[in-house]
TrEMBL record:
<comment type="similarity">
    <text>Belongs to the peptidase S51 family.</text>
</comment>
<dbReference type="Pfam" id="PF03575">
    <property type="entry name" value="Peptidase_S51"/>
</dbReference>
<dbReference type="InterPro" id="IPR005320">
    <property type="entry name" value="Peptidase_S51"/>
</dbReference>
<protein>
    <recommendedName>
        <fullName>dipeptidase E</fullName>
        <ecNumber>3.4.13.21</ecNumber>
    </recommendedName>
</protein>
<dbReference type="InterPro" id="IPR029062">
    <property type="entry name" value="Class_I_gatase-like"/>
</dbReference>
<comment type="function">
    <text>Hydrolyzes dipeptides containing N-terminal aspartate residues.</text>
</comment>
<keyword id="KW-0963">Cytoplasm</keyword>
<dbReference type="GO" id="GO:0006508">
    <property type="term" value="P:proteolysis"/>
</dbReference>
<dbReference type="GO" id="GO:0008236">
    <property type="term" value="F:serine-type peptidase activity"/>
</dbReference>
<keyword id="KW-0720">Serine protease</keyword>
<keyword id="KW-0224">Dipeptidase</keyword>
<dbReference type="GO" id="GO:0016805">
    <property type="term" value="F:dipeptidase activity"/>
</dbReference>
<keyword id="KW-0645">Protease</keyword>
<dbReference type="GO" id="GO:0005737">
    <property type="term" value="C:cytoplasm"/>
</dbReference>
<keyword id="KW-0378">Hydrolase</keyword>
């Protein structure tokens, strides 16, 4: 196996574009020519057949075959044989519950962290790549056995991160306030707020912010910081007590 390789995308569709249109060049350079087929995990949406059709159409247009795990009679075996894994967006709670129900947490971890196969996530698929789904925006429509996720990186991500709108009359909590409430709990890891159009590329011990919109980084007890595309986030991959940064 090689080092872990992850492409963690904030969102599947950017305003004005088609499915994965905004990141298709990133996908091609990430998967490269060695990967021929991608294993798709459509568990975050209810209509898995329709979701698999959408994903298959996109990946075939980029030159890759796509197998959907929900069509396999043995999901664990499908993961063991996969060349690359793509977990799509939808409801994060539904997705994580299905990963537990199908005994896939450890299998996916092993394939990505030990065998070095590429892992791509978008939205909910990015959420489950992190320590936990505590910082998802989704409603808990089902009850997974744990909020602990795949742990492919030692921090959390908030996909679709939204900046407060100064002109808005909406008096509800901002995303920033919600993340701050999460950090009021002890021993909570950093949270990377990925705006729509942003993605994080992880190659071994190197993490780089890509895309067009940038990100905000939240560390427990610190003021959030703003980061442009191209930022080196490799320090987030060091697990040893990031709270002291």
């Amino acid at each position: 196996g090689g080092p872990r390789r992850l492409l963690l995308v904030s969102n599947s569709t950017l305003h004005g574009g088609g499915y994965l249109g905004h990141c298709q060049q990133h996908i091609k350079s990430f998967l490269g020519e060695k990967v021929k087929r991608v294993l798709f995990v459509p568990y975050a949406l209810h209509d898995r057949d329709a979701y698999a059709r959408t994903a298959r159409e996109k990946f075939e247009s980029l030159g890759y075959g796509l197998d959907s795990i929900h069509e396999s009679c043995d999901p664990v075996e499908a993961v063991r044989k996969s060349e690359a894994i793509f977990i799509g967006g939808g409801n994060t709670f539904r997705l994580l519950k299905a990963l537990y129900d199908n005994s896939l947490i450890q299998e996916i971890r092993k394939r990505v962290l030990e065998d070095g196969i590429p892992y791509m996530g978008s939205s909910a698929g990015t959420n489950v790549a992190t320590v936990s789904i505590n910082t998802t925006n989704d409603m808990p429509i089902v009850y997974p056995p744990s909020l602990q996720a795949l742990g492919l990186v030692p921090f959390n991500i908030n996909p679709h991160y939204l900046d407060p709108d100064a002109k808005s009359t909406h008096m509800g909590e901002t995303r920033e306030e919600r993340i701050r409430q999460y950090h009021e709990e002890p021993n909570t890891p950093p949270v990377l707020g990925l705006r729509e159009g942003a993605m994080l590329l992880v190659e071994g011990d190197k993490a780089t912010l890509q895309g067009v919109t940038g990100a905000r980084l939240f560390l427990r007890g610190k003021k959030p910081t703003e980061h442009e595309p191209g930022t080196d986030f490799s320090f987030l991959l060091i697990d040893s007590n990031l709270q002291n940064l």
